[in-house]
Amino acid sequence: MSARPTFTRRRAIATGAAAATATLLTPAVSASAAADRGSSGAKPTIVLVHGGFADASGWNDVIGKLQYKGYETIAPANPLRGLPTDAPYIASVLASISGPIVLVGHSYGGAVITNAAAGNPNVKALVFIAAFAPDKGEQLGVLLNSYPGSLIGDSVQGVPFTNPDGSAGTDLYLRADAFRAAFAADLPLATTRLMQATQRPFSASSLTDVTQAAAWRTIPSWGLVATEDKAIPPALERFFYKRANAQVVEVAGASHVPMMSHPTATTRLIESAVRATG
Known about the structure:
Elements: H1 3-42, E1 45-49, H2 60-68, E2 73-74, H3 83-95, E3 101-106, H4 108-116, E4 123-129, H5 140-144, E5 156-162, E6 168-174, H6 179-183, H7 189-197, E7 202-203, E8 221-226, H8 234-243, E9 247-251, H9 258-261, H10 263-277
Parallel strand pairs: 1-2, 1-3, 3-4, 4-8, 8-9
Antiparallel strand pairs: 5-6, 6-7
Helix pairs in contact: 2-10, 3-4
């Protein structure tokens, strides 16, 4: 007879203690969770779009820095099949993202993002990293030849291919003997040899495709000038960014791939866009 009351009393004490503990902890846990949700809600998704002769791995160091700081980061594979294909594809990636977006483009990726971001109210900032920022009606090949200094024209090799509809196309590759000087002269030789061997070509039609939209006309923009860029002349980058009324930084000595050779400077510029538009 005595065992039952003892068991009941212990059970009641344990139940009461658990309830008291839950009462004390629940508000703290809820507040912490709410703070986490609020923090993540305040941070935009960073979308990083690569250009020609490259893939998304070129953003790896920048991605690591952004993720360390708590940013959701996406670096989709740019198809590199020309603006009529690439811009809608990246636009579809953007449409899948809830909440604010800071959209970043490198090189040809800059042309892609200024087409893809048009009409998407979630894109709060455009960041151009040694990139094209064409206006509606412009062609990249014409723009590239408007300033001296690019080595790309003398460094590419064309490889014919057949499109699914049977029409002929040409893929552009950077030759092994020209890749480092034209694209990434401030990176170690071993790195550029790997980059050259694994490069993704882009369709030559990208140079003649007509830009259909210029999102930088309505979306705040930031731009990074690579002062030793031998792919897109620095003077052309300055022209683009000035026309877009962009906030500009110049990275002295940077080649065409500052996101690889100067990832900290690149990340800081992206964060400047986040802070200004958050």
